[in-house]
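Possible regression after last week's pipeline update?

I re-ran a chain I had predicted before the update to compare outputs. Posting the input and the new output here so someone can diff against the archived version. Not blocking, just want to make sure nothing changed silently.
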Amino acid sequence: MISPEASHPALPALPVLVLPPAVPAIALVCDSPHSGTDYPADFDYTVDAAELRKLEDTHVHWLWDAVPRVGGTLVHATFPRSYIDPNRHEHDIDVAMLADTWPGGAAPTARTLALGNGLVSSLTPSRHSIYARRLQAREVAHRIEHYWRPYRRALAQALEAAAPQGPRWHLNLHSMPSNVYERLGRVAPGPLADVVLGDLHGQSCSAAFTELVAGAFRQLGYSVAINEPYAGQDLLREFGEPARGHHSLQIEFNRAIYLNEKTRELLPRANAVREDVADVLCDIAAHIHSVTPAHS
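New output (post-update):
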């Protein structure tokens, strides 16, 4: 195996942040894998930075910062998903972007090959190449070992700590571009919803919990779609198992309702959206309290 240490700069201090409950804990863990904005020194991208930042879920962990105040744990990446994506399988690698042989497993999805956004992105949403060269296998190994694995481990540990036994609830937090159908190469079936919930078509979460969250947002005036255009990705497949009481639900916000998509700056409405998220979290926490034993 390739050593991920060879010829690399200092290791990241905090690739992932874990914010614990600020009040008595409930079995709720929320994670934002794509909102990191600390670009590693060894990234070596050559595309325009503004173009690269279109891959970010900028400010998503800020929108959800009330999680600890309702008893949940908030986990979020500090590094950008364009560097390495914690929401992709470790083997979702397009070996065509490598200069040498990849020693591990490689099973890129059709979406990775078409859109260039697998474990390590090769293209921006506008199909611009991120690199002017092919990456060395050791570079990808470094990113897996020191960014991808710490994130996945932190999330797994938070979920285990939240509910060593019994049911637990996991919200996988994202934002989506307002032109998402164009990016996906699809014809929009109608206006993009404000909020899209993904439960892998019922495989990662109970229908009842999905509907509870949908209803909480609709009550506040948000339009909600379920599994369209996003049904979820690898973290839901990894941690969602509703038959065991492990519910994983992806939540996507339409960026246009809180973010200037060109400058990445918050819109004036962003604080109101954040307050609405806090209200939804209170509804979720009340549900969890109602179906689980009291916590000490």
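Follow-up from reviewer: compared with the archived run. The chain has one domain: 16-84+138-291. Marking as no regression found.
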